[in-house]
């Protein structure tokens, strides 16, 4: 450890610890693994959006040579499950009814892939097709087809939160405005398909899975099959992206476990790309009505957010999503009066869950667009309107979120400066525009997904016997964001060791200590806190041993980058390795342990926990666009992102996260949308028609940071999140830039070329009528 | 091409692929795809499957020096031809400069698109040692990445170009 | 994904391929690059018993220029080979640029111009530009060969006049008096996108007079279509912004697009108007660049 403010390992762009294995093709992802005697399995899904299952005939499939097992609901526990504890509404295989095109009906295990596909085609299912509903507003009407008996009126989640007195605020406001926006269904599209290998041996289940949380998978799989958690081992090999879609166990884990138990052989299951789209658990479509009352200076007095979400056929993470959608709105602006109403409805479409930004990017698009229109109505610069309202540090939101560090104002001022905002707003020619939006996100959710008193994170460090390396054991999950690298840097910093000598074992429930996994941008802060504690424990033991070996008071010793020296006489030194070795000889293993539990956060009202966090990131984004006035084609020329994300552990990885989060925001802002036919089947379940931006489509990105004078107290070394923060403002940012360019507002996402064209056309027609 | 028929009448073909400089003789069906021969028969799992329809590029290999989607190449069409996969880059312990550049520029995160991305980049640098940014972006436009926004990938490719020029830009 | 079983035959000559196609009937089809056939087989939109591979027919891989005949492109020339061909770049950069805009680099290395034409999807990129340049295609079978204008090749989505036993062997752009041509592919992203609207234009200019014009549209009708009304409007006239705008309007009126997940018919029609006008400007000013 070093003197305050100066770091030896963190703050440096160390190369990824898994960089070499990935660039050489040596890294094994779940789908690359081959186990002895392994079978291949796949799931048969429903072609109908809503139908009763009358009969399933697996006999022809079972007779196909090479088929080892065919299973349906009769062969698996009928216990309902779901990642949201309040809503267990899914079965491993549908029993009475299928609820969306892609719902799970049966599964096959066979000796090779080709045989599996052939066997699936031989399973005969008789369905009685039922009326289906594909729109949440329709689903909530009287007489709409009912998906789940237990959820009357297809209401999955209903939220009514009321803080202060919004009606009074509106009555006293100088100006009140409301706007309605629609956000579209999108899908995470990790490049690696879901995959899971289940092994059943001697009463113990091992699952290799492309998962964001071995712990949640272990917990729910154990529960499903009535196993002790200690008899279920979940391992995450190298993993090709999740973005929220791989946080809950899928049919692949549950059916895979059942097939492995039945056949006694390892079973590898996977989704094809179109099956991934059907499984989904991506972003919800939202209808968002926002109302704000402001005083004559533009100060926000009260806000009402009234939302409806299309949840699809199952809950997935959707309860939390529904809360996050509205709960996070007051984070960026200071006001006392806030009303949030939300209904998440069931529809006969693939279930929606958590996708980068978890429910909040679209409400941000709505709110930031809405604020820009208020600015216009008041004759104000939209940036000035933000500055009047930005949240300051050490404040509490009306819904009881405590914000410690907050540099949103500084983010805005810097964004204004580096983008040339002032100049451009006056001088850009028609067709070019500049727009801004802000956002905020949690650095880990204050409470885990299911109710438990387990710590959020824990870690162990073992220094090897001759002290020339140390291994970090952490349950934290590297899904590509680089947590393995960053946590090793944190371990080395806390120990006074070097990153280059660190090794890591992560995301294996048998060998690594508990951690909830990669979601809600929690790991740098939460897993990092546990790692820091473990490292400090090692450091303490090393310093104690060194003080004996050097005959020096422990307070006079400094330990940094693997060397210990006497502060008052630096010529007296000893290596960390020598001390560690001596420690081992005299006392046995040199081990450090840490764990992290956040303080009790949040208020006492219903849903209060969702949105709580030890710390919040803040971000201001400005984008410059060039619109083709005749075609509506949007060229995004540049995006400036200024982030308040606390202390930086690894600058290269941090900016990489900004790039990636922004990329996702860009894609969803302009191109991405999951589209259905009138029977609930996805029309674009492939990467040709579901358009991710290519390398030729991306704007230039400038990613900058601002820092507080005092670091965030809740995070180790003052860290906060960055992985999701930059997805939040992007859609609103583009919406505002388009408005600045062309004077037209697009009220639904994506902001496609055709929609811009149509808005321009309508504007021209209106002007002609005058 | 030699073919044999089993008792069900299913034909299999004898093919030789030159993969990363080595000859591999395999017996395959007509519907066997090159990507599956590489991954399943030769255990070269660096080449990935992301979509199997030629949209994502994670299966990119060099076929006679040209980047192709191996998920759209029948193994029988690759008979007698040279295939370069990610495992074929570099020399013994030494990494290829493009691999080094990816690490040095943090041009990968989850790494799933990385093999295909590097193969496209390698093909570009083989024929155009000092590409412009536009040329770099075009070369990888058929490789989808969900993690990086391509920012550092383009940086890595351009840094190889500057290197080949023999100095800093 | 599942690629169904099929029989596989390597054709050693065009004649052999044609014979086999004839004898095996509609359950057999040709595979060249496979970038269209294999995805369709995987997705179940194509069912076939036999694939006849013509990839070893090196006689179909040439690009050349023959005085008196024109530019000859073999059917098995890949999109990237079209793009990079010095022979084509010398005269018809517009055709090379068209190839450049297709799919992505990996697909362009194995997809063929013959495949793009014979697949006959309405949004195909080569047909419009080739039609404006008066391209002719040669279809060969074991009894002989026939040559017809590309314009007459297409009969509907994925349908053409090609007979079961015919192979498309070459495309010829005859020598002509066009001074400029261009193709604009309007897609929803800059790579890996099908044309929402495709507009091709060829003009023969003499000073400011348009002696002759050809306009062809893709993705806005069941087949690529020529817009003869617009061509007639331009023929012999002095060009002006107003004239080109008028031509665009006629092209829009002649188009017959559908509404699908990529765009509405209304939008496509208006894009035809805009891009016809812009393409005319470009072809008039920039030659075949």
Question: Could you please describe the fold and organization of this structure?
Answer:
The complex is a heterotrimer of chains A (770), B (169) and C (289). Helices cover 28% and strands 24% of the residues of chain A. Chain A is built from 19 helices and 28 strands. Chain A is globular. The longest helix of chain A has 27 residues, at 523-549. Chain A is of the alpha+beta class and 770 residues long. In chain A, a hairpin with a 2-residue loop joins strand 9 (195-201) and strand 10 (204-209). Chain B has 169 residues and is α+β, with helices and mostly antiparallel strands. Chain B is elongated, with a radius of gyration of 17 Å. In chain B, a hairpin with a 5-residue loop joins strand 1 (3-5) and strand 2. In chain B, strands 1, 2, 3, 4, 5 and 6 form a 6-stranded mixed beta sheet that branches. Chain B folds into 2 domains: 3-88, Ubiquitin-like (UB roll); 97-165, DNA polymerase, domain 1 (Orthogonal Bundle). Chain B has 5 helices and 6 strands; from the N terminus they run βββαβββαααα. Chain C has 3 domains: 7-53, Uridine Diphospho-n-acetylenolpyruvylglucosamine Reductase, domain 2 (2-Layer Sandwich); 60-173, Uridine Diphospho-n-acetylenolpyruvylglucosamine Reductase, domain 3, CATH 3.30.465.10; 180-288, Enolase-like, domain 1 (2-Layer Sandwich), CATH 3.30.390. The longest helix of chain C has 22 residues, at 265-286. Chain C starts with 6 loop residues before the first strand and ends with a helix. By secondary structure, chain C is of the alpha+beta class. The mean pLDDT of chain C is 97. The interface between A and B is large, with 52 and 54 residues.
């Amino acid at each position: 450890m070093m003197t305050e403010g100066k770091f030896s390992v963190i703050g440096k762009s160390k190369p990824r610890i898994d960089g070499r294995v990935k660039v050489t093709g040596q890294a094994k992802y779940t789908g690359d693994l081959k186990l002895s005697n392994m079978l291949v399995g796949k799931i048969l899904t429903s072609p109908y959006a809503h139908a009763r299952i009358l009969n399933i005939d697996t006999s022809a499939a079972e007779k196909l040579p090479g088929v080892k097992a065919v299973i349906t609901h009769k062969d698996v526990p009928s216990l309902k499950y779901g990642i949201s504890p309040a809503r267990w509404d899914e079965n491993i295989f549908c029993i009475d009814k299928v609820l969306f095109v892609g719902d799970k009906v049966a599964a096959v295990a066979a000796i090779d892939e080709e045989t599996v596909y052939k066997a699936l085609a031989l399973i005969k299912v008789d369905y009685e097709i039922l009326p289906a509903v594909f729109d949440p507003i329709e689903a909530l009407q009287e007489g709409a087809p009912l998906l789940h008996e237990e959820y009357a009126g297809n209401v999955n989640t209903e939220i009514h939160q009321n803080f202060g007195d919004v009606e009074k605020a509106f009555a006293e406001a100088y100006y009140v405005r409301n706007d309605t926006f629609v956000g579209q269904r999108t899908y995470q599209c990790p490049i690696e398909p879901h995959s899971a290998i289940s092994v059943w041996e001697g009463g113990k289940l091992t699952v290799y899975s492309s998962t964001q949380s071995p712990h949640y998978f272990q917990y729910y799989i154990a529960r499903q099959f009535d196993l002790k958690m200690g008899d279920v081992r979940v391992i995450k090999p190298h993993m090709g992206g999740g973005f929220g879609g791989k946080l809950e166990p899928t049919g692949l884990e549950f059916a895979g476990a059942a097939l492995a138990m039945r056949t006694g052989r390892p079973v590898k299951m996977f989704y094809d790309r179109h099956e991934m789209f059907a499984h989904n658990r991506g972003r919800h479509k939202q209808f968002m009505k926002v109302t704000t009352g402001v005083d004559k200076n533009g100060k926000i007095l009260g806000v009402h957010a009234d939302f409806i979400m299309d949840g699809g056929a199952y809950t997935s993470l959707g309860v939390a999503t529904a809360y996050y959608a509205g709960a996070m709105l007051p984070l960026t602006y200071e006001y006392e009066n806030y009303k949030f109403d939300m209904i998440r409805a069931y529809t006969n479409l693939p279930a929606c869950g958590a996708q980068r930004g978890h429910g909040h990017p679209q409400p941000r698009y709505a709110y930031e667009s809405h604020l820009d229109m208020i600015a216009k109505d008041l004759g104000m610069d939209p940036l000035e309107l933000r500055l009047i309202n930005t949240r300051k540090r050490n404040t509490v939101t009306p819904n009881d979120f405590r914000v410690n560090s907050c540099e949103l104002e500084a983010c805005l001022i810097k964004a204004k400066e580096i983008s040339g905002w002032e100049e451009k707003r006056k001088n850009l020619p028609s067709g070019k525009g500049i727009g801004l939006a802000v956002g905020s996100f949690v650095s880990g959710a204050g409470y885990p997904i299911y109710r438990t008193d387990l710590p959020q994170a824990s870690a162990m460090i073992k220094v090897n016997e001759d002290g020339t390396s140390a291994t970090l054991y952490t349950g934290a999950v590297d899904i590509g964001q680089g947590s393995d690298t960053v946590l090793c840097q944190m371990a080395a910093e806390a120990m006074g060791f070097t990153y280059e000598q660190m090794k890591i074992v992560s995301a294996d429930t048998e060998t690594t200590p508990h951690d909830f996994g990669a979601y809600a941008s929690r790991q740098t802060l939460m897993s990092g806190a546990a790692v820091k504690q473990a490292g400090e424990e090692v450091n303490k033991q090393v310093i104690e041993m060194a003080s004996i070996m050097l005959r020096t008071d422990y307070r006079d010793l400094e330990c940094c980058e693997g060397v210990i020296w006497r502060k008052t006489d630096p010529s007296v030194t000893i290596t960390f390795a020598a001390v560690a070795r001596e420690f081992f000889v005299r006392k046995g293993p040199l081990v450090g342990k840490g764990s992290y539990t956040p303080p009790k956060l949040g208020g006492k009202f219903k849903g209060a926990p969702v949105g709580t966090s030890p710390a919040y990131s803040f971000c201001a984004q400005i984008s410059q666009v060039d619109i083709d006035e005749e075609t509506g084609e949007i060229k995004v020329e540049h995006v400036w992102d200024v982030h308040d994300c606390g202390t930086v552990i690894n600058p290269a990885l941090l900016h990489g996260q900004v790039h990636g989060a922004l990329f996702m925001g860009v894609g969803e802002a302009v191109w991405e949308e999951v589209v259905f036919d009138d029977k609930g089947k996805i029309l674009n379940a492939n990467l040709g028609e579901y358009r991710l931006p290519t390398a030729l489509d991306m704007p230039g990105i400038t990613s900058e940071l601002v820092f507080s004078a005092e670091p965030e107290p809740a995070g180790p070394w003052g860290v906060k999140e960055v992985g999701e923060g930059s997805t939040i403002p992007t859609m609103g940012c583009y919406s505002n830039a388009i408005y600045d360019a062309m004077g037209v507002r697009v009220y639904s996402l994506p902001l496609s070329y055709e929609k811009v064209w149509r808005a321009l056309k309508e504007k021209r027609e209106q002007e002609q009528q005058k | 091409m030699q073919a044999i028929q089993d008792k069900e009448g299913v034909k299999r073909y004898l093919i030789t692929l030159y993969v990363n400089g080595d000859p591999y003789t395999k017996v395959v069906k007509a519907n066997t795809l090159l990507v599956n021969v590489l991954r399943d028969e030769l255990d070269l799992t660096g080449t990935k499957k992301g979509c199997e329809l030629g949209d994502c590029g994670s299966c990119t290999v060099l076929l006679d020096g040209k980047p192709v989607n191996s998920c759209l190449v029948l193994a029988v069409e690759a008979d007698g031809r040279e295939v370069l996969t990610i495992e074929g880059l570099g020399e013994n312990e030494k990494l290829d400069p493009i691999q080094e550049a990816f690490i040095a520029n943090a041009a990968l995160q989850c790494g799933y698109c990385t093999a295909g991305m590097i193969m496209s980049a390698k093909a570009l640098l083989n024929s155009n040692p000092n590409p412009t940014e536009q040329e770099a972006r075009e070369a990888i436009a058929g490789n989808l990445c969900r993690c990086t926004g391509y920012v550092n990938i383009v940086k890595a490719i351009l840094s190889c170009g500057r290197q080949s020029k023999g100095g800093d830009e | 994904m599942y690629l169904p079983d099929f029989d596989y035959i390597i054709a050693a000559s065009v004649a052999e391929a044609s014979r086999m196609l004839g004898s095996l009937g509609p359950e057999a089809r040709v595979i060249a690059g496979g970038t269209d056939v294999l995805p369709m087989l995987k997705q179940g939109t194509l069912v076939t018993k036999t694939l006849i591979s013509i990839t070893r027919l090196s006689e179909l891989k040439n690009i050349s220029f023959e005085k008196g005949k024109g530019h000859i492109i073999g059917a098995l020339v890949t999109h990237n080979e079209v793009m990079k061909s010095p022979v084509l770049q010398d005269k018809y950069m517009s055709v090379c640029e068209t190839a450049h805009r297709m799919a992505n680099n990996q697909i362009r290395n194995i997809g063929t111009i013959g495949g793009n034409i014979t697949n006959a999807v309405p949004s195909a990129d080569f047909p419009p530009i080739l039609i404006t340049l008066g391209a002719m295609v040669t279809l060969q079978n074991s009894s002989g060969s026939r040559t017809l204008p590309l314009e007459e090749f297409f009969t509907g989505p994925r349908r053409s006049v090609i007979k079961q036993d015919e192979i498309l062997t070459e495309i010829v752009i005859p020598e002509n008096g066009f001074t400029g041509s261009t193709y604009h592919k309007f897609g929803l992203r800059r790579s890996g996108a099908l044309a929402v609207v495709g507009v091709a234009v060829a003009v023969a200019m003499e000073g400011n007079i348009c002696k002759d014009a050809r306009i062809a549209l893709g993705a806005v009708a069941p087949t690529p279509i020529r817009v003869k009304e617009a061509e007639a409007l331009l023929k012999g006239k002095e060009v002006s912004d107003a004239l080109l705008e008028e031509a665009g309007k006629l092209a829009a009126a002649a188009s017959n697009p559908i509404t699908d997940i990529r765009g509405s018919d209304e939008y496509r029609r208006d894009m035809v108007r805009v891009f016809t006008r812009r393409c005319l400007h470009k072809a008039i000013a920039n030659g075949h660049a």
